[in-house]
Here is the input.
Amino acid sequence: MLKLTKRTEYGLIALTHLAQRQGEVVPAREIGDHYPIPRRLLAEVLKDLCNADLVASTRGAHGGYALVRPAQELSLGEIVSALEGAPTVSSCGDENLLHGENSCDVQPICPIRSPLVKIKDKIWQMMLTTSLASLAEPHKPYRSLASQTQANGLVKSSIKSP
Amino acid sequence: MLKLTKRTEYGLIALTHLAQRQGEVVPAREIGDHYPIPRRLLAEVLKDLCNADLVASTRGAHGGYALVRPAQELSLGEIVSALEGAPTVSSCGDENLLHGENSCDVQPICPIRSPLVKIKDKIWQMMLTTSLASLAEPHKPYRSLASQTQANGLVKSSIKSP
DNA sequence: AATTATCGGCACTACTTGAGTGCGGATTGA
DNA sequence: TCAATCCGCACTCAAGTAGTGCCGATAATT
Here is the structure.
C-alpha cells in the first residue's frame, strides 16, 4: 500500500542512532534498550544492513555495529534497497525493466507502463538524493517540491478511510 | 514494500482510457476489451473511483463511466487516495497524524518519526503535484528532482535481489 | 580454560494484505 | 420483455510482513 515496512523503520532508527556515535562500535543491545523495538527483529535488520555494507559488524564481546560511511553520504535509497529491495511501483515497474526493457506481462498495449515507470523514477530519485543526515536533522527544509502547481484544487474529501 | 497496488495500476489504465474520450460515457466492458485486465476487478476499481467522485457512472443499457474533470486537473494523489488510501510510510506516518499529531506507538523517544513523516510528505507532495495528464503524455519531462545532489556516490551493488 | 557477551544463520508460526472470483439484484434503453 | 449495464456483498487463495526460537561462532574477560 505504498508504505515502508517496519524493517525500514527500525533500520532508520538504528542508523540514526549509529550516526550519533559515528565511527564507534555500538552493540545492538544498546539500540534495543533505547527504543521499543523487538530486539530479535532489530538484530535481523542490522544483519541485512551489514550484508548490504551499510554498517560493519564486530563479533565477540565488546562487538557491535558501526556506520561505514558518514550519514551525509548514506542515501535513503540505499537503506530502503538493503531492507526491502529497490522500490517498484507495480508489476510493470519491476526489475524486469532493469534487465532489458520488456517482459512486462501487460505488454503490447499497456498505456500505463510508462506512467508507472515515471512514478517509480520520481520516488526513487527522491530517495537517492535524500541522505540519512538530512532526514535526521530536524530543521532542514525540504520544500523543493511544494512550490510546484501542476495540478490544483485537490485533496478534497477523497481520502479513503481505512 | 513501497509499491502501488494492481488496483491503482488498473485505475490508471482506466482513467487514461477515459481521458482519451473526455466527457463521453464509456462502458467498463470497452476498457476491459482493450487491456488484459480481469474484467471483474476492473469493475471493482471503477466503482471505487466512482465513490471517490473521480468518475461519474451512468446505469442501464448504454451506461458506463466518464471522467468528471479533465485529466489536467486530476492528481495522482487523488487517484491513489481513492484506490488504496493516502500513502503512509510506516506506522508512525499513519492517519494518527491527521488527527492530532500524537498517538504514535513509539512515542516518547522516536527519533525516526519526523524522518518518516518527511519521506511521506515528499512522496505525497509529488503525487499531489502530478496530474493524470502529465503521466499520460509520453514526452513530458519530469527532471525537477534529477538535478539535486544532496547525497552522491550511491546505487552501487546494494540492490537486493528479490 | 571457563565464562560471558556479542554477532550469525536457519526455520518456523501467525497475521495482514492483495489479487481475483461468484452471484444475484437494480436500473435503463431497445 | 429482453439485454446491457452498473451495484453490492462475501468469499477463496496466494504472498508478504511481523515477530520468535534456537543454537553455533567469535572474541574479550576472568
About this structure: The radius of gyration of chain B is 19 Å.
